[in-house]
Here is the input.
Amino acid sequence: MSTQFLSLSEIETQLCDIVVAELGVARHELRLDMSFVEDIGADSLDMVELLLAVEDVFQISLPDNDPDPVAKKVFTRSPFRVRDLAELVYLYQGTGAPKRTDWRGHVRVLEESGSSPFTHRDGRWNRSLGVNVPIFERLPSAGFYSQWRRVSDGMRCMQLPGGAVEIGCASGGNDEGPQHIVELDAFLIDAEPVSTTAFCRFLNSIDKPSSSFLSDWFVLGAKDKRAEHMLIRREADGYHPLPGTERWPMILVSWYGANAYSLWANGREWRHYRDEFGNREGSFLPSEAQWEYAARGMRYQPFPWGDAAATQEKMRFAQHRRGDVYRAETLPLADVNRMLGVSPFGLHHMAGNVWQWCRDWYDSAFHGKPEAITRNALNRKPTGVRSERGGSWIGTAELCRSSYRRGRPPLARGRCLGFRCIGSVGDEVR
Here is the structure.
């Protein structure tokens, strides 16, 4: 391609052609003000394919490991529209062909790693048979930390001590700083992301959720091509994971679906999944501060294991190569009980495998606000975008750093997006 400097309007025209080819949008329907997530229905996998195609056509390198706040807008501008990507292409003209170690080149060999016993329960939970039974049952301690099992879904949970926790990164992107201290109370957190098995147990245990609930949570539209990658199916006797995916994380689940599950799993009213701050049920998804503490401990380190570089032996990341096509059962997801992305508290997949929804509304400037240093800091001010943390099997190691922040609309779903829950220490004796 010519190295001629292109005007923004020329880039917009060429970019529209790429979007049509990569995302299957009809050319006569595509507009520059269409958002990739809300209007086109693209998820992270779609966006990676699109960005790689854009790099090839325009011979530019869109940074994936640069704290440049302009580049981070690809993931955090809400909503991110076709014209926004055209602006990035315009800004990065002349950067040359990509020189990546991730996303390009030979297919990676997936390294073997150990596993813990898979404790998630299938079937149904009949709470009425044990309304006075505590939500958690004690397990033998794991090192210095108390360990519990949630009776609703069988999830193993670690009790993290409270204290003064360092949050953020001084050298990260603008939304990762300033680095600051937050006082957190003790809390329980899931040792693993919620699996397809556990999510099916939730669906089979609740009282006939309406079609509007299911559409809010995970059911995709008839024309949504991601439906072929849904890992659970409804059968005559209820929901079941696809064979071979029983230990995989539940994906293609919205923030609303994750929140509904978190309420149900903790014995709360799951129907309040949208009304987070308008009722006493709240949410049992981790705050960003809780999640970051659980991922790396009380003091800053870039990854759960410390300063060492990321490898496939340590976490599941950068598995996708341009043009790869998957069936549901061939998605390169790791079992939730695989010992990958292990945090100092023994939690699995606190880096890589799947992004995880957090309770906060995402605000790129939140760390610099007074609310960020209050006890049990949580951004309660609606922004239209919920936070997610941890990186995934699709992206680069940079996105898997413990302090890396980004967000998506609460109705968004992705083939690399799941969740885990927290619990109240007081529920040990409920």
